[in-house]
Amino acid sequence: MDKLSNGTFQFRLPQSLVEEFKLACVNSEVKPSEQLRILIQNYVKLNKENVLNEEPFCFPIRKKEKGKQIFTIGEMYCGPGGLGIASKKANIEMNGIKYGFQHIWATDNHLESCLTYQYNIPTKEDKKFKVICKDINPKLVESLPKVDGFLYGFPCNDFSNVGETKGLQGKYGALYRYGVEYIQRNDPKFIFAENVSGLSGANSGYAFKKIFEELSNAGKYGYKITPHLYKFEEYGVPQARHRYILVGFRRDLNLKFLVPKPTHLNNYKNCYKAICSPEISINAPNHELTVQSKNVIERLKYIKPGENVWNAELPDHLKLNVKGAKLSMIYKRLDPAKPSYTITGSGGGGTHVYHWSEPRALTNRERARLQTFPDNFIFQGSKESVRRQIGMAGPVEGAKIILEAILKTFIGKNYQYIEANTAL
Questions:
Q1: Which of 14, 305, 328, 424 is a good FRET partner for 410, with 20 to 30 A between their CA atoms?
Q2: Is 156 a catalytic residue?
């Protein structure tokens, strides 16, 4: 392997070995490029598993520094680190004392997400911190140390408005209970639970009430929880992303969380400024272009900014022959004067979010900007894996506002707030 240029590896191999490799691929009826990619991916995967899954796990200890008050936190289903980087950025100062958060542990079962988290979240001082990359299970929950704050965005697949909503009866629906189990054992001072807007409608509303009740009554003391449907475009995120977040303080602390007042209610950040100001360097990480087919390029030429494949005036040969539900995001081009529509982590052709003027899908770096990740946050894994990670993450700057409101609640610092829009 000789050098790395623009994301492409160049190899220097003996000609005889090259010919033997090509012949082996012909005999196996596989493309040489595909076989090389598989070999590299398998090697990297093995190396990542060795890095993340060494035993036993060592957990950092609470930092004690003069003039600082640190609240320890742990994350279950941490993903690539949307909440993680938000908690690092969340800091408050009052009466000469700085308040912030320190990560003690984080868990997820998606390998590339864990590697991304491990690469970006721990500070230089947190040398012992290591993401636990495993399927969640009772034994793992039992091993997790006590922290001041417990954060978890339990898997939302079965509560999403996109696709079939199975709620608690789905494969992922009951995974929130591992969080309840952790709370039962450790009584953290506060909890932060996040899920999609479809949560309220799952199982005819039963799922949301059930989750709320179990979290409210968890542990020795129970929790006073404030549920709210956040519209993150109202908090400076250049994306229409709506999520339920339940913030609760342990009842014996006599604290009540107040929903922070929106910062951009009448002044949304648009996707043009988010992506183009400042301009993204052509060599920026996670900024690879997707090669679009001739059909897609031609189709996008007929779709105006803000339109999708269903409401654009397309010639017959470019229309989609799809029966059933028509998702509004299919081949939808961004409107540069508005926030983006919701960035998702899955979906086939036509769901990758499309540029307002160029006939192409956004790059992952552009998607990351719409999720308000800083440009120095580097995602690990293949391009499709990175797309998944970005779509599944929480919006950084929106989460930061909520986390800073939690700090303000702890220290009794007033802030502007609104009434919660969800009553249970």
A1: 424
A2: yes
Question: Tokens for 228?
Answer: 């709210």
Q: Which of 114, 133, 156, 271 is catalytic?
A: 156
SS in 3 state form for the chain?
Answer: CCEEECCEEECCCCHHHHHHHHHHHHHHCCCHHHHHHHHHHHHHHHHHHHHHCCCCCCCCCCCCCCCEEEEEEEEECCCCCHHHHHHHHCCEEECCEEEEEEEEEEEECCHHHHHHHHHHCCCCCCCCCCCEECCCCHHHHHHCCCCCEEEECCCCCCCCCCCCCCHHHCCCHHHHHHHHHHHHHHCCCEEEEEEEHHHHHHHHHHHHHHHHHHHHCCCCCCEEEEEEEEEHHHHCCCECCEEEEEEEEEHHHCCCCCEECCCCCCCCCCHHHHHHCCCCCCCCCCCCCCCCCHHHHHHHHHCCCCCCCCCCCCCHHHCCCCCCCCCCCCCCECCCCCCECCCCCCCCCCCCCECCCCCCECCHHHHHHHCCCCCCCCCCCCHHHHHHHHHHCCCHHHHHHHHHHHHHHHHCCCCCEECCCCCC
**How would you write the pLDDT of the chain (424 residues) with one tens digit per residue?**
333 434 556 667 777 777 777 777 776 667 777 777 766 665 565 555 555 665 557 787 777 788 899 999 999 999 999 999 999 999 999 999 999 999 999 999 999 999 999 999 998 777 788 899 999 999 999 999 999 999 998 764 444 444 444 434 444 446 888 999 999 999 999 999 998 566 655 555 677 888 889 999 999 999 999 999 999 999 999 999 999 999 999 999 999 999 999 999 989 999 999 999 999 999 999 999 999 999 999 999 999 999 999 999 999 999 988 776 667 889 999 999 999 999 998 877 788 999 999 999 999 999 999 999 999 999 999 999 999 999 999 999 999 999 999 999 999 999 999 999 987 7
Q: Kindly report the backbone phi and psi dihedral angles of residue 246, in degrees, each rounded to the nearest multiple of 5, phi listed first.
A: -110, 115
Cβ within 8 Å of residue 284, ≥6 positions away = 365, 375
Structure tokens at 13: 């191999």
- Burial state string for 178-209 with b = 16 or more CB within 10 A and e = fewer than 16: bbbbbbeebbbbbbbbbbbbbbbebbeeebbe
